[in-house]
Specification:
One of its GO terms (molecular function) is DNA binding. It is built from no helices and seven strands. The protein has 84 residues and is an all-beta fold. Strands 4-5-6-7 form a four-stranded antiparallel sheet, with no helix packed on it. The protein has a three-stranded antiparallel sheet with strand order 1-2-3, with no helix packed on it.
């Protein structure tokens, strides 16, 4: 696991309306949450700084986006493969 970047308490996996997510164990004092993501080992083709991660929509559809969002708004329905 990892600690909350706002208060330092451990983050725990919770199940919500749209699936699993990380939430601070110090709830309700701290309401920090993070989406569960999966790195795919590809550098973002737009900003060249972030990593492309796999995420899910509220309807459980997989898409790919830059982990620097909202600074970089790269998204794709197709799996990016990196440079050749």
């Amino acid at each position: 696991g990892f600690d909350c970047d706002l208060c330092g308490h451990p983050m725990v996996i919770k199940l919500g309306r749209y699936g699993k997510f990380y939430a601070c164990s110090n709830f309700p004092e701290c309401r920090n949450t993070k989406a569960i993501t999966k790195e795919i080992g590809v550098t973002c083709p737009i900003c060249q700084k972030g990593q492309v991660i796999e995420r899910k929509t509220k309807r459980n559809r997989i898409f790919y986006g830059c982990d620097r969002y909202p600074e970089c708004e790269f998204t794709s329905w197709d799996l990016p493969v990196g440079r050749f």
